[in-house]
Amino acid sequence: MSHWLPVSNLADERSYNPCPGCSFNIPALSKKSAIKQRCNSEKCFFNVNLSDTVGYPTRNAKVFASYLPITLSTSWSYTTSLALIHFADLSSPASHALSSPITTMMEDDVLPLSVHKLYTDGSFFPAKYSFSPSMASAWLALDDDGFILDSSSLCLPACFPSALRSEIYAVVSGLNALSHGSSITIYTDCSQLISLWAHFVNVPFSPKLLREPNHLLWLSIRQLIINRNLKVDLSKVPVHGDDIYNLQADSLAKDAHSSLQPSTFPPLAFCHAPCLLTFNSLPIDMNVRHFLRSIADARALLSFCSMARFTALGSSSLFDWAGFDSHKNGHPKFWIFRIKLLLDMLPTLSTL
């Protein structure tokens, strides 16, 4: 395979230049006549397993004839079809290669097969004043006689924080600790979790799942159930009822927020999905289109904040940019006039 380097480190940059040569290069490959005839502009070639390669079409028809950059040209349907290949073959060696050393370390503590009940609960503290949002999860493992065999609580990475995400994290953490072939019943007080479980776990995989928030966690649950041959049932318990085990799981989750040892696990350590999309080493666990749109909006706002008319008045932190969207209130013609006036787009005497 020929080695190509990105022109820029920007997340939305898709242009690449052929590598002039680096430590990955295998000189013997560059001397082959077939490669020299087809790829006469590249200088760096290396070996790669065919099962690890993914083909993307490019906008340039003849990129090998001259030392020119290429631009990836893919559609959402094409990218989805590539993901489906990985999801359809969960037992392939390529899917297991995605497991990180941290994930392997988390799998060392395996619960015995005598575990038949799992109480899970999550806790979420939203952002308030100068405090950032916080998520935590906990689970209790019980046998048929009601004895607590093990328990765990963890302060979670604040990535896409929400109350539902903390509940799903608790289930993923509990399933990750089970032995192969376990048959358990998960008790939870989150009715939304049970409802979404019926749509995302108990049905065949659908590409529509990739558009949902927390889809990586749902895919991780599916992956754990398949790989470990688990039989999982869900049972609803009353919220803040008289179930002592649910109250104990709730207490463990809340106490994890004030733990002196914060979470040392990165967000990727909890992802067991066979295909991951990341941005700045963080998993994209939401609709990819919405995520890219938010990145574009943030960059547009940053460019807007850097205009000379604002920087001359002082630091950009002096302006209430969060309330800027309020200009859309009222008649459309009125706020369009205000925007044009702000950007000096009106044909006034000062601009003519």
UniProtKB/TrEMBL annotation:
<dbReference type="InterPro" id="IPR044730">
    <property type="entry name" value="RNase_H-like_dom_plant"/>
</dbReference>
<dbReference type="InterPro" id="IPR012337">
    <property type="entry name" value="RNaseH-like_sf"/>
</dbReference>
<dbReference type="Pfam" id="PF00075">
    <property type="entry name" value="RNase_H"/>
</dbReference>
<dbReference type="GO" id="GO:0004523">
    <property type="term" value="F:RNA-DNA hybrid ribonuclease activity"/>
</dbReference>
<dbReference type="InterPro" id="IPR036397">
    <property type="entry name" value="RNaseH_sf"/>
</dbReference>
<dbReference type="GO" id="GO:0003676">
    <property type="term" value="F:nucleic acid binding"/>
</dbReference>
<dbReference type="InterPro" id="IPR002156">
    <property type="entry name" value="RNaseH_domain"/>
</dbReference>
<feature type="domain" description="RNase H type-1">
    <location>
        <begin position="112"/>
        <end position="258"/>
    </location>
</feature>
<protein>
    <recommendedName>
        <fullName>RNase H type-1 domain-containing protein</fullName>
    </recommendedName>
</protein>
